[in-house]
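Course assignment 3, question 2. Fill in each field.
Student: A.L.
Task: Predict the tertiary structure for the chain below.
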Amino acid sequence: MARRKKVYEGKAKILYEGPEPGTLVQYFKDDATAFNAEKKDVIDGKGVLNNRLSEFFMTGLNQLGVPTHFMKRLNMREQLIRAVEVVPLEVIVRNYAAGTLAKRLGLEEGTMLPRPIVEFCYKDDSLGDPLVAEEHIIAFGWASQQDLDDMVALALRVNDFMTGVLYGVGIRLADFKIEIGRVWDGDFQRLIVADEISPDSCRLWDIETGRKLDKDVFRRDLGDLADAYTEVARRLGVLPSNATHLPKPTLIN
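Answer field:
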């Protein structure tokens, strides 16, 4: 399809105008960032892998009746998505202690939590996406109490689906983050899963070895990030078992 007007560019994706009103084209870049973009690199093929993996997870959620913005994959790097009003929050679900939770509470990484914990962070790169309480969210009008209840319910349904699918291929879902968007169906507002679901936004650990198969490979210099993402894709059947690093297509403006 012809390139359309750029609407937004983030650290890992670009949004373009879609072919129909209420749609966007989401392009996955090869850029890798960590520590609020203090660490940067370009990983050939990363965008292709994340496009296919996000398609896999979003399609599965749609089939289960968990609404998402995903409509269809257009090519190796682009998806057609529904335009949404993004709630300015990251919704994080944690099954095991890792990352900032382990640091905040002095927990050993890998400690299984008593139950899935849902946290919210305010989306603002200049502030480092700070952790916020439900009181902050309601007081500042980012979401209502009903919105929060619906967001927690959505996040836990995503967690149930992802945990089961990944466990079936020998991967432990330690934690993940999603974004939520508002859409209108007539006079009624709905909340749906937006952005992406990929190893960029999850912590994935091999159940047998503990090997990290997510962006922590890049954060901690643990090896080749594309190899880790390719392994996830292979296990899920998203790529052929003999696939290697994917070439970086030329972006035509």
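Instructor remarks: The longest strand covers residues 171-185. Residues 145-167 form the longest helix (23 residues).
Grade: pending
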